Amino acid sequence: MGVVIPLGENKNKQASVKPLVDLTSSGMDRVNQLILSKAGSDVQMIPEVANHLISSGGKRLRPMLTLASAAMFGYQGDSDVKLATSVEFMHTATLLHDDVVDESDLRRGKSTARIIWGNQASVLVGDFLLGQAFKMMVEVGSLDALDVLATAASVIAEGEVLQLSVAKNMETTEDDYLQVIRAKTAALFAAASEVGPIIANADRAGRNALKSYGMNLGLAFQLVDDVLDYGGKAADLGKNVGDDFREGKITLPVILAYRRGTQEERQFWRDAIEGGETDAAQLEKALGLISKYGSLGDTIQRALHYGTIARDALAPLPESAWKDALLEVIDFCVARIN
Amino acid sequence: MGVVIPLGENKNKQASVKPLVDLTSSGMDRVNQLILSKAGSDVQMIPEVANHLISSGGKRLRPMLTLASAAMFGYQGDSDVKLATSVEFMHTATLLHDDVVDESDLRRGKSTARIIWGNQASVLVGDFLLGQAFKMMVEVGSLDALDVLATAASVIAEGEVLQLSVAKNMETTEDDYLQVIRAKTAALFAAASEVGPIIANADRAGRNALKSYGMNLGLAFQLVDDVLDYGGKAADLGKNVGDDFREGKITLPVILAYRRGTQEERQFWRDAIEGGETDAAQLEKALGLISKYGSLGDTIQRALHYGTIARDALAPLPESAWKDALLEVIDFCVARIN
Which Gene3D superfamilies does the entry link to (chains A, B) (predicted)? Predict the structure, then answer.
């Protein structure tokens, strides 16, 4: 999809997550060791299921956010590694449960755990990882960090239930949709970023800056993900164009095309999303309507809007390599489109 | 099943949970209010699903243990109510996830949430309640109590996965089985009882006494539950005789009958539990073999053994109405058989 993206301050180079990866590499080595150790159990199925997902090539953006947001405020210690690992476990637990809830067969191009080990193992290993995440947070001993992460756990689950309630309902508004992605995606980005300044004993302004950065980065990230589902290539994504369509998921590209469409086009969307008519021909038509109404470009505009808020959230903080790396991640998230 | 049960010190009266219910009644009123409030959400499906299970008539034994074990050490304050509610939410979340894992249709005589709202809602509302439980624990602010309960959450999930791995395997030993029930049932009883002395600032001996009491009470409780499945009445239990048999669950009555059986009888158990041949005639035969080898009576003997350990755990503590009520609960748990 030839969408032209105006990038923030990095117009002339390809924005990359590499500066963040480089800066956090020694911390992430320790996170990866801790992941392996805490996903271990004498019950053999637990490391099998956990490692299947953990080793499947996610970017580990969330734990990097925790490490960077602590380092930015001069944190010295090892609680950042424990909290970063907790954040990744919360994310992994959510993915395991999501696959059961969505009845997904593929994630990042591999069979999901529920296909290999069954729904039962996915539910229970998710619960185990959540328990391990809380144990690590307790070891860190910061009640403020615990509060932020426990609240995120509730909010994420609440957002997933909300998504169930709006599922396959074409009258879902952009606001409903935003409420869902704020809870199910952005809340963990926000918590991952806020616990850094907390353990570094930053002031309230620093905490709020990173929380706002994470929240808005998460919104931009999810919006772009939803665009990619209608415009990316399976090889890049580990999923196929139109997965969301076939699952009847309502995302912003669909909401915009529906609301801007004719009576007849709206009927098409209802038959597809609510009625399950989602074969190849229907997908072709859906892509045509999404293109006709500029839904992908406008969804990207929304992502850029939140990206700008994330950028401004960090503006008052002193310049540093950490800050630059976090700013570049905003552009990277949107630049994934190309 | 005419099994004669020698009760501990209450040989001449019917042991009852009533003293514990009476002593904790004002605290439990506050627990019940907090349950309703913390299971609330703007996402309508959450209170619907949560209240379906919460209002379905469980005894709320676990939160009563928390209230009593705090009161026993002179606790004054409201953290006991928050922790008791957290414990009940952890239990409810486990039940919601268990019903999905076991594909159960009935619990306490009512359709399970997954039958009414689907597996998806059961998984996600369970996650929400777990998040709310952790938020309440964080409000209490005791890192020791958080540690005990977060550890219990991990252990419970680990035990459930272990149960999956031994499922439908007739070579499961009594030790394997004990490891499962220790994790999936007794760990939460132990944690519920240990957090009381923690918030009351009791000494290490007091904590350990209540932890041991809870752990052994939980083992006795689960063993009796497993006996009831082969000997109780559906009206008392909200489930039918033989549910475990039909689900191919391996419990101690089955383990004992299998290990004590002839070659031909062992083949029968393998066909039933591993092969799924569990119709009415097979259940009849299973009940006959369980009776032939005295498996129910011997399972009850095991329960009495753990009950005695629970009793001795409390022995060094000063006499009080609270202590008497907790001791009577041990006998009550076993006396449910009649």
Answer: Farnesyl Diphosphate Synthase
